[in-house]
Amino acid sequence: MDQERRAQWLRGVLDLCVLALLRHRESYGYELAQSLDSAGIGPVQGGTLYPVLLRLQRTGLVTAQWREGAAGPARKYYRITPAGIETLRRTAVDWTAFADGVGAILREVQTR
């Protein structure tokens, strides 16, 4: 996959993906990056992920809390807020409609 194109797509949906992952349980940055990669998004570097987490925190969509690690350094755990859940619900509907439209156009190209 073209890395520049992937980066552009990722910028548009990374916050939505992070909120969706956090709806299951709180998590820390490295764990979120691993979950994104496992889900097929591909590797997401800290320089991309942490600004998104900070923005989500500043806008009240997630909260963050530092915790001591049992076998390592302290980690900052992120948890989705009620406002984040509501934003996720609304945005997921919008994204699905948008992605379905793009998919319909691309399916036409793939069948020719």
Question: What attributes does this structure have?
Answer:
alpha+beta; Arc Repressor Mutant, subunit A; 64% helix; 112 residues; three-stranded antiparallel sheet
Provide a descriptive summary of the structure in words:
Strand 2 and strand 3 (75-80) form a beta hairpin. The chain is built from 4 helices and 3 strands. The relative contact order is 0.14. The mean pLDDT is 92. The longest helix is centred in the last third of the chain and has 29 residues, at 82-110. The protein has a single domain (3-111), classed as Orthogonal Bundle (Arc Repressor Mutant, subunit A), CATH 1.10.10.10. It is globular and about 55 Å long. By secondary structure, it is of the alpha+beta class. Strands 1-3-2 form a 3-stranded antiparallel sheet.
